[in-house]
Write a structure and sequence with these properties.
The protein is mainly beta and 154 residues long. The protein is built from 2 helices and 9 strands; from the N terminus they run βββββαββββα.
Length: 154
């Protein structure tokens, strides 16, 4: 069984950009019900299908599988709720951890979030100086929420 443990934060400045490298992501949601999601994602030339369970604290079950990019594109075009989530994901190493910074585009343009995956729910972390308010418990910052409630409409 796979378990995802992550914390999510707003950013207080752009100093992370000096040390970040980004990749374009496009993702959509086939289903979201009772805090369970089925997501399709394309990163570069690779497709992924992901099933996530409900969040408990900072943790939830996550199962991710590689799929052909053509299948992922067809699912994004025909099965996923619109609008799709478009973003550039940057990766930054800090304090022995990899921070993923999502800069959203489309109807979520203007939103930038940082998240870090942990190995234990009680793991202590050193926050980078560009990290702001923690929003891990705020469902408005879940990608699945942003599909039906885009940041531009808040």
């Amino acid at each position: 069984m796979a378990k995802e443990i992550e914390r999510k934060y707003l950013l207080k400045d752009d100093n992370w950009r000096k040390i970040a490298q980004g990749s374009v992501y496009c993702q959509g949601y086939i289903a979201t019900k009772d805090q369970v999601t089925v997501r399709v994602r394309i990163v570069g030339k690779q497709g992924y299908l992901t099933v996530k369970g409900p969040s408990v604290e900072f943790s939830r079950l996550e199962f991710e599988y590689s799929i052909p990019v053509e299948d992922a594109q067809e699912m994004l075009n025909t099965l996923c709720q619109k609008p799709l989530i478009e973003k550039i994901r940057y990766k930054v190493e800090w304090g022995g951890l990899i921070w993923e910074i999502d800069e959203f585009d489309g109807l979520n343009k203007g939103l930038i979030l940082a998240e870090v995956e942990l190995s234990d729910i009680n793991q202590q972390i050193s926050l980078p100086p560009w990290i702001g308010e923690e929003v891990s418990h705020d469902p408005r910052y879940f990608n699945s929420y942003l599909v039906t409630n885009p940041f531009s409409q808040w």
